[in-house]
Amino acid sequence: MARSGDGLLGDSVQENTAASRTKKRVILTAGAVLVAAITVLGVLQLRPSGAPAPAADDSPPPELTASDITNQFLTALTSGDAAGAGKLTDDPDASTAQLAAVWQTLRPSSATADRIAPVAPAPDATAVDERFTLTWQLGTQRTWTYESALRVVKAAAGWRVQWQPTLVHPRLAAGQSLALRDVAGQPAVVDRDGTQLVTWTTNGTSAADPAVAPLLVGGLGRVAAEQGSAGGWYVALVDAAGADVEVLHGTPTAPHVATLSVPVQKAAQAAVDTQQNPAALVAIQPSTGDILAVAQN
Fold first, then answer.
1. Sheet (strand 127-137) strand order
2. What are the DSSP E strand ranges found in 138-269?
3. Distance between CA 282 and CA 269 in Å, rounded?
4. Backbone angles phi, psi at 81, to 5 degrees
5. Phi, psi (deg, nearest 5) at residue 258
6. I want to staple 89 with a disulfide (CB 3.0 to 4.6 A). Which of 159, 161, 183, 297 is the partner?
7. What is the pLDDT of residues 234-276, one digit of tens each?
8. Which residues pair with 177 in a beta bridge?
9. SS3 149
10. Strand ranges for 64-126 from DSSP E
11. Mean pLDDT across 284-290
12. Residue 69 near residue 86 (C-beta atoms within 8 A)
């Protein structure tokens, strides 16, 4: 069947369109191949022919020197990192426990350590002694500074601090700690034998034993407070039970001493408590006129 001119023209346009699409695909494919080739060529140009790939650096880290260990230990010590300091010693368990106890009982706001004239050890040295000053900040206008020393020894694992409690303070021994003593808890008034009657608190005073001399302890506390004799702060060496062994820094204020006697006071109170009628008792030492007890039921 013969076809019209318009039909022939349409067939020609369709053939040209298909050919154009095929040409575009060829051009795009050739372009992608060219880009890949350029990329490979660039990579090959960046690495010289026959040059091996760089090997990973698996060499061990340089060994820490005695000075490095000293600096790291003092940094951990003064930042309160007991575990970190303990790992740098030859006795991690004992050192960690005692350093943690010191920070807990001393309660510093900060601490610093400054080495004194550090000297590089000889190449064949197996022990190095280091001196330093240790400064504790214990609150406003409360600074405690002293000199101490430590020894660094070379072991199979490298340099380590030889643990001794004395490196924290020259008077510190195993099982002991350093404690900040503030106003609270110090005796304000004691009896003639040194038994505590009135105790300083953060807000004033309180009876050490409310059952002893209840008629008097309030007045005794007011007298102590009026005289401005609240106990001063100090640092004590304490045993495992927390009791003071020795005052290391500062001077605790001496308490007021009353003429009362706690044993006589307890006996007087027991005597009046047995009476059914109102009763009061005052015990006086004849030779001195000192009041030993005042009791009332």
1. 110-116, 127-137, 143-155, 158-161
2. 143-155, 158-161, 177-181, 187-190, 196-201, 204-207, 234-238, 244-250, 256-257
3. 10
4. -90, 80
5. -95, 160
6. 161
7. 999 999 999 999 999 998 878 889 999 999 999 999 999 999 9
8. 238
9. strand
10. 110-116
11. 95
12. no
